[in-house]
Amino acid sequence: MEVSNLLQAYAQGQIDFRQQNLPQSNFSGVNLFGINFSHTNLKGANFTFASLNQANFNYSHCQQTQFRGADLKQASFYQTNLGESDLHGALLQGANLTESILTLANLVDSNLMETHLAGVDFGEADLSGACLLGAVFQDASTRHPTQLKKAILQGTDLEGLSLKGVDLSEATLVEANAVNACFQTADLEGANLYQANLFATNFRNANLKRANLRNANLEQADLTGADLKEADLRGACLHQAQLFQVICNGANLSQVNLHQGKMREAQCQGTDFSQAHLSETNLRQANLAEANFSNANLNDADLRDANLNQTNWTNVKLDRVRF
Fold first, then answer.
1. DSSP letter, residue 9
2. Burial class (CB in 10 A: 0-12, 13-18, 19+), 186
3. Degrees (nearest 5) of the Cα angle 190, 239, 180?
4. Where would I find the H helices in 80-200?
5. Please, are residues 195 and 176 in contact by the beta-carbon 8 Å criterion?
6. Closest Cα partner for 182 from 156, 163, 154?
7. Is 39 exposed, middle or buried, given 0-12, 13-18 or 19+ CB atoms closer than 10 A?
8. What angle (nearest 5°) sits at the alpha carbon of residue 122, between those of residues 121 and 124?
9. Residue 5: how many CB atoms within 10 A of its CB?
10. Which pTM does this prediction carry?
11. 273 in Cβ contact with 250 (< 8 Å)
12. Sequence-ordered list of residues with C-beta below 8 angstroms from that of 39, at least 6 positions apart, any chain
């Protein structure tokens, strides 16, 4: 079908254009409210600044399609292939993207508020500056968990979101805002969370191996049972953080603020705590063998029943420490 014929039919009241073959078609700036493009081939089509509120793109092929600045509020993209598509600045509030493919897609500065994202594959997609307030990442009916492997979420607002069990391995979350977010059991291996705001965030049993958490704000965060092996937390704030049974063997916690932290039964073999602030920290029954506490402040800390074999205590402050 020719675009001109489609637009003429739409103007006459027809909205059902399913199973069409419309690759490379130009719909830029057009108002197609409520149109049905389900099961349609729209590869490489141009919808720049188009009005597509409540449009239906379910099961369609939209690879490399242009949606820059488009109004896609409450649109549906169920199981749609949007790989390498451009949604920069698109309005997707309330849209349904369940089980869609958005690998290598551009979602910079897009509005994804209250969007359904369960089972979406965001592999290597760029979501820098996107607004995800109220977005839904879990749905019991989806076949696969949401994938954000190698996704770019730099400066993205994730406050209060539940990303439980989501694959964020090697993702970029530099300076992201994830206050009160939930990453429980999530895979963040090799992720970059440099200077991220993670205040009161839930990382229980998360995989943070080799993650970059330098200068991150983890005050009052819950890292119970998390795996931080070889992670970089230099300069991070972990004031009053919960690290019960955390695994941080070989991690770098140099210059961290762990004042009043709770690290009971933590596994910290070979961990670097040099110049760290650990006053009033609970390290009871922790494995601190070969750990480096040089120039650290451990005043009023609790080290009862901890494994201190070959620990480095050079210039450590140990006033009122309980051994």
1. H
2. buried
3. 65
4. none
5. no
6. 163
7. middle
8. 130
9. 9
10. 0.91
11. no
12. 18, 19, 58, 59, 60
Positive or negative torsion for Cα 195, 155, 106, 76: positive
136 beta partners: 116
Q: From residue 13, how far is each of 8, 29, 42, 70, 184 by CA, in Å?
A: 9, 19, 21, 22, 48
49's tokens? 């600044």
Enter the DSSP assignment of 95: -
Which among 266, 270, 314 is positioned nearest to 290, based on CA atoms?
270
Query: What is the distance between the alpha carbons of residues 200 and 180, in angstroms, rounded to a whole number?
Result: 5
**CA 128 to chain centroid:** 11
Residue 248 has a CB neighbour count (10 Å cut-off) of 29
Structure tokens at 175: 């300076």
Q: What is the DSSP letter of 50?
A: -
What digits encode the pLDDT tens for the residues 118-176?
999 999 999 999 999 999 998 867 778 899 999 999 999 999 999 999 999 999 999 99
How far apart CA 100 and CA 76 sit, in angstroms, is: 10
Rg (CA), the chain: 24
Helix (H, G, I), strand (E, B) or coil at 7: helix
253-266: pLDDT as tens digits: 999 999 999 999 99
- 7 contacts: CB under 8 Å, gap ≥ 6: 30
Q: Give the contacts of 193 (CB within 8 A, at least 6 positions apart).
A: 173, 174, 176, 211, 212, 213, 216
Tokens of 198: 């993670």
Q: How far is CA 39 from CA 56, 57, 80, 170, in A?
A: 9, 7, 9, 33
Q: For position 151, what pLDDT does the model report?
A: 97
